Amino acid sequence: MLCPCCGDRILLDEIECGCGARFVGAPLDEAPIKVLRLGPAITSVAMLALVVVAGIVVTKWFGFAGVIVAWFAWRALKLGKRNPDWYGGRKTAAATFAVSIAGVAILGSYGVIRILEVLDNYQTQENAITQAAMYHYCGAIEEYRRGLGGDSYPRDAQDLKRHTGESLPVDYWERSIRYQSSNPLLADRSVQRTRIPITSFELRSAGPDGLIGTDDDIVMLDGIFITSAELKKQSATQQLR
């Protein structure tokens, strides 16, 4: 073997070299020293900690970055399974993977609920704007009725406009709201062309789908909001009578 001090060749059974260097132990074998690599597992843990901090400090939606954490943890697991003598931290990587997947699943469920709430609030806003327009027009209708001594509602939108100057409003979707008047005691539609007092009116918005007569219609009947389904039920009951 070679002397580590001067580089001269010496026998294994010698206790010292000619240069004066002495052996203090048996020489090391040439087998490589295996040190477990914990880098992939530690990286996944660090990524998880970063995502948690970002979610707390900035916004909880950073939690979706847990998908990236799960990928790092899965990679660490795969490396540890393929080369267990070289890569360690498999339990840590497995725990990180489970936590990140669970976190993403919980946040995803919360996100779906929030999306549904936002859509519901958006629809409520649409209805509120349309109903506000109907309330304003209803005020003009009542003003018309009081001006005629409380006997009749306008026969049509043109009749109202001639007396009050109010035109039919539009709903949230910029579509004109429909006005219809009638006398519920008379089934004959010719009531619109007679002098019989109009005692009932309906304001109707076609709703989001833009189709009159569907369940998403926004309906005001004699100043009271009623669902399209309830109005259909009332009409069916009156026809049976």
Give descriptors for this structure:
rod-shaped, 241 residues, alpha+beta, single chain, 8% strand, 5 helices, 4-stranded antiparallel beta sheet
Write structural notes for this entry.
By secondary structure, the protein is α+β, with helices and mostly antiparallel strands. The chain has five helices and four strands; from the N terminus they run ααααββββα. The chain has a four-stranded antiparallel β-sheet with strand order 1-2-3-4. Helix 1 (39-57) runs antiparallel to helix 2 (66-82), helix 1 packs parallel to helix 3 (90-147) and helix 2 packs antiparallel against helix 3. The relative contact order is 0.07.
Q: How are the secondary structure elements laid out?
A:
Blueprint: H1 39-57, H2 66-82, H3 90-147, H4 157-164, E1 178-182, E2 200-205, E3 218-221, E4 224-227, H5 228-240
Antiparallel strand pairs: 1-2, 2-3, 3-4
Helix pairs in contact: 1-2, 1-3, 2-3
Q: Structural class of the secondary structure composition?
A: alpha+beta
Strand order of the largest sheet: 1-2-3-4
Please state roughly what percent of the residues sit in beta strands, choosing from under 5%, 5-15%, 15-25%, 25-35%, 35-45% or over 45%: 5-15%
Tell me the number of helical segments per DSSP (H or I, 4 or more residues long).
5
Shape: rod-shaped
Q: On the 0-100 scale, what is the average pLDDT?
A: 81
Q: Supply Rg.
A: 41 Å
